[in-house]
Amino acid sequence: MLHTLHRSPWLTDFAALLRLLSEGDELLLLQDGVTAAVDGNRYLESLRNAPIKVYALNEDLIARGLTGQISNDIILIDYTDFRQTYG
């Protein structure tokens, strides 16, 4: 199942989101949600430990100036990839 996070993890009930995730699920970080992918933040370790794939929209990373700060554990996709996969 695809889940999305479009708000900053600091403004979200992140623990509740993690409880909803099941093995094999996918999480798409978009808009301000991409901040969860920044290497070294407290939310990233929880995402790494979850049995899911985590994606971040590259356009939203670029818009926030975060492209060089993202963990290698996060799969970067663009809107075209997203649309082709889930459209």
UniProtKB/TrEMBL annotation:
Alphabetic keyword roster:
Cytoplasm, tRNA processing
Which InterPro entries does the UniProt record give? DsrEFH-like, Sulphur_relay_TusB/DsrH
- Gene Ontology biological process terms in this record: tRNA wobble position uridine thiolation
Gene Ontology CC: sulfurtransferase complex
Q: What PANTHER family would the database entry show? A: PROTEIN TUSB
Q: What is this protein called?
A: tRNA 2-thiouridine synthesizing protein B
Taxonomic source organism: Escherichia coli
Question: What's the name of its gene?
Answer: tusB
